[in-house]
Design brief:
The complex is a heterodimer of chains A (282) and B (247).
Chain A: H1 7-44, H2 48-55, H3 58-98, H4 105-119, H5 123-136, H6 146-172, H7 175-183, H8 188-218, H9 230-241, H10 245-281
Chain B: E1 2-13, E2 16-27, E3 31-35, H1 42-49, E4 57-62, E5 65-66, H2 74-80, E6 81-84, H3 96-106, H4 112-125, H5 141-153, E7 159-163, H6 171-187, E8 191-194, H7 198-204, E9 207-212, E10 215-220, H8 222-227, H9 232-243
Parallel strand pairs in B: 3-8, 3-9, 6-7, 7-8
Antiparallel strand pairs in B: 1-2, 1-4, 4-5, 9-10
The chains are: A mainly alpha (282), B alpha/beta (247).
Chain lengths: 282, 247
């Protein structure tokens, strides 16, 4: 059967289009006025020329781009290596904290203490402690490489953050799922492995992606140890010429990764919320 | 032979006594139906039998073995028992087939092919074979509960515990679930069910127990308890169920 809108509906559609056009017009006009005023105000202000030369010297920026970009590779490598180590350690900590086995009691206590301590200390402090403190011990067979020590420091702190995210995921699984699994004869370990963890992981993917973005940015902190990452590379160039364009370049490079990653995180989060709501109504 | 023997069972939550000196015997191939208002202790009794709750006193025996012994291997006990919940509790991240084969493969060491074959046999028997590879959230409530029942009988339990399996369902979906339970009863499955469906209780029950405040006040055949109740409490309960249009 074919359906064509009634005259009344056709008239309504026309009115809706008219209202929509008017709204677009208003939005465009107000955007031009507000943003235009801001731009003109900025450019015509007396200090603009100096600001432009100090922060946005694009010719100079292009010249040092490859140096900062090379530094950023260090940040990315460090992020990838660290995130793998963090994932493994954090999962262990979360499992230790949520286990009820008597034999694991000491591990449960240790894991709780670990998380409490390293979640509560500034990352920069851990980087300084590990990066400068470990070499001061003069241990044989232990590396003095600042990049390795810096990575270890980041892993130490982020494992505590991520362990809490995973643990909250585990605790968010409804006890009835556990009861159903145990009723089928599955052991504690099997219940965790086949029923609880797979569901928990799905729920913590969005917050973990958030942590990944934060991790990438925080790898910039290891520059304090002298690691030539993007921040350090920009600093070296900037202090040579007293021009701050390298910092802006570094910022832009970070944004090129973090903005798409956060957008992606938002999408994953939205999808997982939609899925959970659909499940709730089923 | 008695599959289940419950003697002087007592269970309380804090100051509230939920089960009070309760006795119950379930012979092989029989169905015992627990009736009573919400909060009368039906679900708690089933959860105690399944070791999901720790009892305060008394004794529970399955096939003559005391399962209320604290040294008992809980996993081994549960392997012999099947439990179906009011809220289905299917695993949402697994397909219907994976839900059913998980325990046979991981707990009962059945080979994967064998477990899948058995599961498909059960699914086709209960008209659900076309849902084998779907996720639970794509199924209706009645279908989900039927899958949950199949999941628990795939382990070939000695005793099946059914906790108000139709209470969360649309009235039109209730019958397809009850039909399965009726089939299982005909197969000779030993079971204990808590239900509000009195008509259904009449059909499957060998014994009906009326619970109030954690005590079995009246017990007997369906015709004795449901049609000819002796105690005023039972009469009152049945009258209220009748008024609610569920008789």
């Amino acid at each position: 059967m074919s359906w064509s809108p009634s005259e009344r509906e056709q008239a309504r559609q026309k009115t809706r289009q008219k209202i929509a056009r008017k709204k677009i017009g208003v939005a465009t006009a107000s955007s031009i006025v507000v943003l235009g005023t801001l731009v003109i105000g900025l450019i015509s202000s007396p200090g603009w020329q100096v600001v432009k030369e100090t922060f946005f010297d694009w010719a100079y920026g292009r010249e040092i781009l490859h140096l900062v970009a090379k530094g950023l590779i260090t940040n990315i490598t460090l992020t990838i290596v660290a995130s793998i180590a963090i994932g493994i350690i954090a999962l262990g900590l979360a499992l230790a904290r949520t286990s009820r086995s008597a034999a694991l009691t000491p591990f449960r206590l240790l894991a709780t203490a670990y998380v409490d301590i390293f979640r509560g200390i500034p990352l920069l402090l851990v980087i300084l402690l590990v990066g400068f403190g470990v070499p001061a011990l003069r241990l044989t067979g232990v590396t003095n490489s600042v990049i390795v020590l810096g990575t270890i420091a980041v892993v130490i702190t982020y494992s505590a953050y991520v362990a809490e995210v995973i643990r909250s995921g585990i605790l968010s699984i409804h006890p009835s799922q556990r009861a159903a699994a145990r009723s089928l004869g599955l052991s504690q370990t099997q219940t965790m492995r086949y029923v609880v963890l797979p569901q928990a992981f799905k729920r913590v993917v969005p917050p973990l992606l958030n942590d990944l973005v934060a991790l990438l940015k925080d790898t910039g902190l290891v520059s304090i140890l002298g690691v030539t990452d993007a921040v350090r590379a920009a600093q070296i160039q900037g202090s040579r010429t007293f021009n701050y364009t390298p910092y802006v370049i570094a910022a832009i490079l970070f944004l090129l990764i973090t903005i798409p990653l956060t957008r992606y995180t938002d999408r994953v989060l939205k999808r997982s919320i939609e899925k959970q709501n659909a499940q709730g109504s089923a | 032979m008695n599959v289940l023997e419950v003697t002087n069972l007592r269970k309380s939550f804090g100051n509230e006594v939920v089960l009070n000196d309760l006795n119950l015997t379930v012979p092989e191939h029989t169905a015992t139906v627990l009736i009573g208002a919400s909060g009368s202790g039906k679900s708690t009794l089933l959860r105690c039998i399944n070791l999901l709750e720790q009892i305060d006193d008394g004794e529970i025996r399955v096939d003559g073995i005391e399962i209320s012994d604290p040294q008992i291997n809980e996993d081994e006990v549960r392997r012999k028992l099947g439990m179906v919940f009011q809220s289905f509790n299917l695993f949402p991240h697994m397909t219907v087939l994976e839900n059913i084969t998980l325990a046979p493969i991981k707990v009962h060491q059945t080979s994967k092919d064998e477990a899948i074959m058995q599961a498909e046999k059960l699914l086709s028997r209960f008209d659900l074979l076309d849902k084998a590879h779907q996720y639970p959230d794509r199924l209706s409530g009645g279908q989900q509960q039927r899958v949950a029942i199949i999941r628990s009988i795939a382990n070939k339990p000695r005793l099946l515990l059914l906790d108000e399996v139709t209470s969360a369902l649309d009235p039109v979906l209730v019958n397809e679930v009850l039909a399965i339970v009726r089939d299982l009863k005909q197969d000779g499955m030993t079971m204990v069910l808590a239900t509000h469906e009195m008509g259904f209780a009449t059909q499957v029950a060998d014994e009906v127990c009326f619970l109030k405040d954690g005590l079995i006040l009246e017990r007997g055949t369906p015709s004795q308890v449901l049609e000819n109740p002796q105690l005023p409490e039972t009469k009152d309960f049945l009258k209220r169920v009748h008024e609610a249009g569920r008789l």
